[in-house]
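worker-03 picked up job from queue 'complexes'. Input manifest follows; two sequence lines, order preserved.
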Amino acid sequence: MSFSERMLKIDRRIIFLVIGLCTLLPLLYPVGLPIKISSEVLGVYDHIESLPERSVFLLSIDFDPASKPELYPQAIALLRHAFKKNLRVITMTLWVSGTGMADQLVTQVAKEMGKEYGKDYAFLGWSPGGQAVIINMGQNLYSAFPSDYGGRPTKELPLLDGVRNLKDVGYMVSLGAGRPGVEEWYVFGKDKYKFELGGGCTGVMAPGLYPLLRSGQINGLIGGLRGAAEYESLIGQKGKAVAGMDAQSATHLAIIVLVIMCNVFYFSLRQQRG
Amino acid sequence: MTELPFESIVGAWVATGLTLLIFSFLYKDNPLFKLAEHLYVGVSVGYVIVKTYDTVIVHLVIKPIAENGEIALLIPVAIGMLMLARYVPKAAWMSRYAFAFIVGMGSGLAIPRTISSFILKQVEDTIRPLLSLAGSDGVTFSMNLLNPASDLNAIIILCGVGSVLFYFFFSIEHSGAGKVVARTGVLFLMVSFGAAFGYTVMARMSLLIGRLTDLIEFSDSSYGRPTVWLSLLIIGALIVLARRSREQPPDTH
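worker-03 finished. Artifact:
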């Protein structure tokens, strides 16, 4: 068996080990590679920056713990930014499996920023129907969410004074890991009720959302852990996403090297066989 | 050093244990992985059922009817109940009304909005940058190669859309000039698949980074070092399982 043949039949566990080490070592010994801010992430940041104090910011946490490593840091960074800007933050989810996690996330960041429930922020929880919830919110927010996650009637929340439906929202960001997510918020929300919309998504979904970004259907996009790291850098509060960027770069480099090596061995084997 | 709450410590041990059990699949398929896999499915389904029951049945149906007398809610409840008629063979036909309602409403909501958002808007964006509404002359052709940030990208997108659409147009043989256009379409598709694959790799690596970050955090003494102890335990269990399977070859019958 030639060297190329042996390399092409290498035990896959060796590759797992290489990837594991490439991820683990930079996490233990960070290098601090520079993070360049992309225009799509800047789009979301700039819009929140431009909002006047006490504007209504709606954050839909449309993911569950399976996508936590990518979207949780995005949500933390966005909430910190919105609270720092003293916006009125309304949070909700369209994913039933993400309700507990979303509640924990919002409560944790609000506590850290010293915000008061009902006055500065609220978590409306989950309501069944997916796209129908968005349409319902566009007509009447209180019929889509008669009570918040804790069971308090939404009409009694001082935070929602002057907010009747989605048209009264200053800016809305959906952090989506699938459906319903960013696309549904555009199709059944922004397109119909005309509010400004930004998106955050997992890396897998990002290429599919770029057409919406280019056409101006969404004004910004935070893609995956990389996008979260950019946002953390923008608000000057580096967290788990920035910490993971060295590991991300190292694993990408390892995968590029593995792809090149596989191709070299494949073509040399083909040449040997004539 | 502040002491962590008991539930955080228990949570750390459970999360570490389950992560390591799932990672044990990287060595090979084993009963520990199966245990974690089944737990994941069971807990997820159980959580969704409980949450759905509490939010929908209790808060959106029972409470409004009992406390506020919102009798109109019985109409959607009745339509929903028709779904259950599928389990009674003689009354199964009644479930069709519920399905008809869902399909009709879903299509009615989705079709016009989807066409508007994903077809018309995207077509508009594909062709608009080459045209502009300027002054009283109406539509003018504004292509300017000196401004690559807008117009050059627009031309590339237009070429990409046109050539890919042509590639999937099978009524004309792809020969001569048509072959060149179709090949261009394939190139655009390759670039698109490459970008999608790159993002997928990034996403999967992010998940690994997330789990390893937690494992590093839970190796701290404030949690009782679950990463260290459970890693040793699981490695030991894998060695025992490997020895057992060597002693008892799998039943081929």
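worker-03 released lock.
Helices of chain B lie at 6-23, 31-68, 74-83, 95-127, 148-167, 177-217, 226-247.
Strands of chain B lie at 131-133, 139-141.
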